[in-house]
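Board work, copied verbatim: tRNA-cytidine(32) 2-sulfurtransferase
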Amino acid sequence: MSAVISETGATSAATGNVAVDSVKKAQKLAFENNKLEKRLFRLTGQAIGDYNMIEQGDRVMVCMSGGKDSYAMLDILLKLRERAPIDFSIVAVNLDQKQPGFPEHVLPDYFRAIGVDFHIENQDTYSIVKRVVPEGKTTCSLCSRLRRGILYRVAGELGATKIALGHHRDDIIETLFLNMFYGGKLKGMPPKLQSDDGKNVVIRPLAYVRESDLERYAEYKQFPIIPCTLCGSQPNLKRGEMKALIRQWEKQHPGRIKSIFSSLSNVIPSHLMDAGIHDFKNLRATGQPDPLGDTAFDEVPCGDESDAGIIRIAQFDD
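↓ predict structure ↓
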């Protein structure tokens, strides 16, 4: 009898320990998710403020692909709008490109559920891309051009003053590397720019946000993600190579990607080689010391930022 009682007690204790562990894990997860949400809101708000992305009275067209980035962007912008000191409106727009098997009900159902204004633009760009691009070739370039032109037109029809895209920090660095490695250009992806047609302003509110944080946020929010089967799943894409490189560096050399990203906002034209942005031909000695002269090439030991006038790294919380 005593053995039975002892066994029952041990079982109850074990069950109780499991329950306690489960509660602790749930509390820790809730704490981490709260930190993540605050970080995303802060970084998005910081980017919007730094580049004056959204102004009083703007109508922001949020481009929705059905991927994690666009879902997160819409969610964050809607919440930031509630706290913003200015008034602006949001309209979510999805371009249904008529890809086979595309679940066309998912986004409209989601938009209705959260109560946001939305527009679905139906254009069969899929057939055009498949007809024009040879089998096995990358479809991204043509697809992107077609999509851009359609979205610019829709923005005008909807009265949008800003077009918001969901590109994040990793996208920006990948684009920088792609242009350097394959295009011979020192060119990235700006957080704000005038559109090709000169009629629209394009903004990237997630410019300061890491992709890994967006992945966690999508899992936390349980967004109804729609996978892209036209371009994102194509094997051997150059952008995929850049993404893998970035993730490898992030693991092997923590802080390297953050430093590269910071360099995009700390450009010194006199120490590059583009005569179009710096007048090398007419350069003459002035007789005055220059803090950005040849001393800028002096090596600064790791962790030593005493030469603040030479090395300036912008701070972005991870």
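The mean pLDDT is 86.
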